Amino acid sequence: MLWYKEHIIGNIKETMMKTEQSSSPQISETKNSTQEESVAPTQKSAPVYGMGDATLLAAGGEVGVKKLVDAFYDYMDTLPEAEVVRAMHKPDLTDSREKLTTFLTGWMGGPSRYAEKYGSMNIPGAHRHLSIGIAEKEAWLLCMQKALDDQGYDDVFKRYVMVQLSFPAEMCRNRS
User: Fold this and answer.
1) Which of 26, 81, 153, 175 lies 20 to 30 A from 63 at CA?
2) Rg of the chain over CA atoms, in angstroms?
């Protein structure tokens, strides 16, 4: 099984249990000198990622997305597993950082500036010229997972982002 699937599946049960515990009705009682009142149960609601700008807000806005992308490319520069993927990029990552930040900001529900700056995005088409196999896909996802982990995001949010990004990562794969 692939490392990111193990990571997601391994923690999903734990997160669901935590979510159920934190969102289960909490009944509190307050007492005054003449009567005892019960407060109606309240439920804590989780953000619905992928709706509106909830994903962008969870990422810390555009500044948070930039920090995420910077960490992502820092890992790409340093992780031995990502050496082949790093070699697919220009030595200067300034343009890559800008493009990914702009793309992710729009993808997360923020302003859609990518098309304004670079034209429409066809993720598999944009990567077709690269030789991307399972190892390269997993290296890219590893860099993103580590970058997400560095940001102090909620575990459910990190899993959401990884699951959503695993689909286009797979679509970019053009060899075994």
Assistant:
1) 81
2) 20
